[in-house]
């Protein structure tokens, strides 16, 4: 029995009764599926190959690791350097012990004469001040009363010294309880006072100098005290100067 419809051509009939696998929609779907499968295979292959290459690229991995190690070592090096600098800035226990030994050695210096005074003569192992009998009450550059004491200074050390600095450090003049301060000279003795304050005296040489101090009362006695250069304490003896 022929089921062909009366109004259908033979070509139309064949087209309508094609097997499903020959129909266009099926073929299109099949092609799309195949393309998707192929694309998936290609993507997987490329990804897997990239992963294998990354795992097998020893140079790249080592370089990255090396950079990290270098950065880490640089940080550690900077940290170590910083610590060593900070540590070096402070004296070590050994240095402190050495400094203490030097100080102890200095304080333990042997003195034959750390300080003595007799008959206007102040002597130590480092220097000597021989006071003159020519002690005068004069006027300073401001017209105020001042005491002028001339002396001969002898430098017994191995370094040049300024007589005025040695005198100021080791000799004190007082009127009552007040320490008398140096003042500027006037007249014929001003140059001698100035040279005493400025000129250096070479080792084992002597210098004729003078000191000038302002007095608070022209009628009160002035007392001169002398230092023990080892103990930095005053000697038991002192020299009084009567102004009236």
From TrEMBL:
Signal peptide: none annotated. Keywords: Membrane, Signal, Transmembrane, Transmembrane helix. Pfam families: DUF5067 (PF16729). Residues 104-227 form the DUF5067 domain. Residues 63-74 have a biased composition (Low complexity). Residues 189-200 have a biased composition (Polar residues). The chain crosses the membrane at residues 24-46. Residues 78-109 have a biased composition (Basic and acidic residues). Residues 55-117, 178-200 are annotated as: Disordered. It comes from the Bacteria. This is DUF5067 domain-containing protein. It comes from Companilactobacillus versmoldensis DSM 14857 = KCTC 3814. The lineage of its organism: Bacteria, Bacillati, Bacillota, Bacilli, Lactobacillales.
